Amino acid sequence: MTSCKIDTRYENKTEMYFALHLDHNKLKYEYEPYKGIKGSPNPDFLVFGRDGKKTLVECKELGLSSIDKGLSYNNHVLTTARDNKNFIKKLRKIIHDASSQLKPYKNVDYKAIVLGKFNGFSFGYYDIVSAIKGDLIFNLPVNKIIVGDPVWSSKGNGQIYKNGLKKQHAYIDAICHLTPYRDYRIEKEFDEKYDENKPLEENIELIFSLANKFPNNDNYCPYCLDVSPLSPSFNLEHGPLGNCNIHHLSE
Which residues share a beta bridge with 28? Predict the structure, then answer.
């Protein structure tokens, strides 16, 4: 079993933040549990949940998209349009690659993918839905009385679902997304001291130093996990990955 603070052994920020998430939720885990086994694609984490279930996790990090790069070279852009097609296509490939790494293993209860993106535009729920179910389409009927109300649907080119049915990579139980969260009690002080010109690690240390100043911060974590369950048995509230994706700033 392993536990970490800010650990340089992780290959990217997604792995590092996911490990911090597990630590803050006091979950036991093994990092690269199959490392050294010949022919093994070696997923990143094996998590031991409070419910006694084991979850095998592959972390994937999304780099800069074409629109991210375009904006970084032109600081005078006042407005822009974001075309998600290329981004969703890359996201589907990442999910496919992660799924292929998880597929060979049979002695676990769940298989989950954790996604992270830390530069450029962030991504969220609808991007993930588009990636796993297909391109989202808004159907607006001309005659509402005959056809009915406007509805969302999707094309059958999703990475998990094909034509509305869970077919490709059906063994994946959840797609997770790391999202930043700052405790409301330290938000003001953090904003005053945060320096975007400092290295990421220094600002992470600032988060921890401020969090430690406040009592009752057991549920605090630097990055929260939004979970999209794909299996009915993957219980989000008492699940194996920790339930810290629900925060109320007014508490």
Answer: 48
Cβ neighbours of 191 (radius 10 Å): 9
Between the alpha carbon of residue 214 and those of residues 180, 206, 220, 248, the distances in Å are 19, 13, 10, 17
Q: Considering the entire predicted model, what is its pTM? A: 0.74
Give pLDDT, residue 93: 94
Cβ–Cβ under 8 Å, residues 17 and 57: no
Quote the tokens at residue 43: 């997923």
Dihedrals phi, psi of 31, to nearest 5 degrees: -95, 130
| Identity of the amino acid at 249 | L
Measure the CA–CA gap between 190 and 244, rounded to whole angstroms: 20
| Average pLDDT across the chain, whole number | 77
SS in 3 state form for 201-241? Answer: HHHHHHHHHHHCCCCCCCCCCCEEEEEEECCCCCCCCCCCC
- For residues 123 and 88, the answer to whether their CB atoms sit within 8 Å is no
Cβ–Cβ under 8 Å, residues 156 and 76:
no
Whole-angstrom Cα distance, residue 109 to residue 117?
27
Q: Are 218 and 199 in contact (CB under 8 A)?
A: no
Q: Is-contact 242 181, C-beta < 8 A?
A: no
3-state secondary structure of 23: helix
Tell me the pLDDT band of 187, cut-offs 50, 70 and 90.
low
CA dist 59 and 12 (Å) reads 9
Give residue-wise pLDDT tens across range 157-176: 888 887 777 888 989 999 99
Within the chain, residue ranges assigned H as helices are 13-24, 66-72, 85-102, 125-133, 144-147, 184-193, 200-211
